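Pipeline run #58 for the internal structure catalog. This entry was flagged by the ingest filter as a single-chain record with no existing model, so it goes straight to prediction. Upstream metadata was stripped on purpose; only the residue string is passed forward. Reviewer on rotation: M.T. Logging verbosity set to normal.
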Amino acid sequence: MRKQLCIEKKREVLSLITNVTFSNVSCWYDASRRDLKMDLIVPKNRTAHPACPTIVWICGGAYRVVNRTVWLPEMMRFARAGYVVAGIEYRTSNEAVFPAQLIDVKSAVRFLRAHAKEFCVDPGRIYAMGESAGGTMASMLGVTGDQKEFDQGDHLDQSSAVQGVVDYYGVVDLSDASAEKDRAAALVNPNNNVPYFAFEEFLGVGYGKTEAEKASTIRYISEQTPPFMILHGTKDTVVPMAQSEALYDALQKKGVFCEFMVIEEAAHGDDLFYQDEVTDAVLRFLNSLPEGKE
């Protein structure tokens, strides 16, 4: 059976670009090197394409594991809405202690700005988004745009600042942490579902108040902090709601625009966070943000 169709182009075709190296970092006890990669969802036809707002997506994994591609199917909603999406990786805590992870995600932002034309990135509309440990990194990106100590590596002529943050249930306040096992666990989860050694690996064995505060988002909030959206579930037994409440309160005190969405019955990493109602709300938030400085 032969059919002849007249098709109208109603939507843009997208392309997935994989295994893009954005940084080369030390590994294996500083004796070797490895590449850090990102995967990008971009317009297929990029020649003369207008620059797109861009989401830097950061996966969680208790700082111990990361998979830059695992959530990309859920990022397609944002890509269909006109966003470039970059799923990035960073050194995990078995490779390097903080601030290596922040240094890595900042390198990704600078890389995107340096290659903005190639990937249709709008340098004035780059947003950090992450879940769990990725939420920690996204939040830290948002509050450390002017902290040059964390800008290391290539493309240092580019800014690592972002114009907005979407934090899915990230740990944002470690300021009361100590190396004592029971306190380290109870800080984030009174039910001890987060093992204390996850924080020892992240901050370093024997870490103290100085190291914990350095990795705490709330320490860096100022009047110049970009807008935030915070999402947390009422059934989260891994990262308590108190973490997000503390972040919201700190942002409010500095006059930073912030939306706080509490998802009823949602556990840590719950599928509820990726339903259309939530994604639509995140898109409304991002679409409402003004273009910022690069």
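catalog note: The longest helix spans residues 100-114.
catalog note: The two ends are 56 Å apart (CA to CA).
status: ready for reviewer M.T.
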